[in-house]
Amino acid sequence: MAPWNPGSVYLYSKPTFILSCAADTIATNAINSDIFYASLTGEKAQLTIGGSHFCPTSPNNAAGRYVVAWLKRFLDDDSRYNSFVCTPRASYRNTCPV
Predict the structure, then answer these.
(1) pLDDT in tens, 17-67
(2) Is 63 a domain residue?
């Protein structure tokens, strides 16, 4: 949630979901979450929602839907969530593994 470690890359091959905040001035997407997303080699998704650095601490229906679907799909290996994981949205990008 709102990852921060400027300029770092993570060569991680496990399924990874990144939640980032569009107006985050502390952990800006350009030098944090976008770089993390690009460096991941496994199934991946990134949802950017409105708000500042603390956006993950506020209720957000879209974030809840995508995070729960991602966790059900990859932690529970429940293929019934495939269509939710692959739903196109302007602020959501993914490798759509299914």
Answers:
(1) 999 999 999 888 898 889 888 888 888 889 999 889 888 888 998 889 889
(2) yes
Burial class (CB in 10 A: 0-12, 13-18, 19+), 46: buried
Domain membership flag for residue 9: no
Q: How many domains does the chain have?
A: 1
Q: The whole model's pTM is what?
A: 0.83
Strand order in the sheet with 44-49: 16-21, 44-49, 92-94
What is the widest separation between alpha-carbon atoms in the chain? 37
CB 66 within 8 A of CB 38: no
Distance from the first to the final alpha carbon of the chain? 24
The range of the structural domain enclosing residue 71 comes to 16-94
